[in-house]
Amino acid sequence: MSNESEMNWRRPGGEFENGVVVSRADAVINWVRSHSIWPMPMGLSCCAIELMGSGGSRFDISRFGMEVMRFSPRQSDCMIVAGTVTRKMAPVVRRIYEQMAEPKWVVAMGACATSGGLFRTYSVLQGVDKILPVDVHISGCPPKPEALLDAMLLLQKKIRTERSLSSLFLGRETRDPLRPTGTPEAGA
Ligand code: SF4
């Protein structure tokens, strides 16, 4: 790399000069977080098949560094709710979300997770945003894996605009407007 191109080499919010990177803390934290998303697949019905498809060779979610699907809330930071959320299942979904460490994000995949879909009935939650702070909604019944990839790229963009440093000091309540201050964690 020539000196001139080295001087012009840039990352969002930062500069590289003579071997020294100068940037804002938020830009660095958000850049790292947005490129190391570990999804928690909350597959509840048919949309989960499309979610599984995104991990196959045709769509290959690993191109974006998001293929490390974890089935433990301790090891994941992005819950992808794929499918119909029944009222019976809702407390379980909420509990698993609360067991995930901060920072964490939520993607509602498909019409059912977004709004209850075609199930206008007493037994189905009319949108998972009633119990979780959803960051990205995906329309469709079912949405294709491309739609999920698009949503994950949107989520990356959103993460890059967050004020991560200040939220570290303000506490987790600021990240979850649905949980009243002082509400105990699940299992506490
Ligand atoms: S949105 Fe359609 S495909 Fe997805 S869970 Fe609901 S009914 Fe199934």
The percent of residues in helical segments reads 25-40%
Mean pLDDT: 84
Count the strands?
7
The gyration radius over C-alpha positions equals: 18 Å
CATH class: Alpha Beta
Ligand kinds? iron/sulfur cluster
Amino- and carboxy-terminal Cα gap: 54 Å
SSE pattern: HEEEHEHEHEHEHH
Give the neighbour order of strands across the main sheet: 4-5-6-7
CATH architecture designation: 3-Layer(aba) Sandwich
How many independent structural domains? 1
Number of helices: 7
Instruction: Tell me the CATH topology.
Output: Rossmann fold
- The coarse silhouette is globular
In this structure, how is the largest beta sheet organized? 4 strands, parallel
Low-confidence stretches: 1-9, 180-188
Structural class: alpha/beta
Strand percentage lies at 5-15%
Can you describe this structure?
The protein has a single domain (about 35-175), classed as 3-Layer(aba) Sandwich (Rossmann fold). It is about 30% helix and about 15% strand. Helix 2 runs antiparallel to helix 6. It has helices at about 5-10, 25-35, 45-55, 90-100, 110-115, 145-160, 165-170; strands at about 10, 15, 20-25, 40-45, 80, 105-110, 135-140. The strands form two sheets. A four-stranded parallel beta sheet has the order 4-5-6-7. It binds iron/sulfur cluster. Iron/sulfur cluster binds near residues 47, 110 and 112.
Key structural traits:
15% strand, 4-stranded parallel beta sheet, 188 residues, 3-stranded antiparallel beta sheet, 7 helices, Rossmann fold
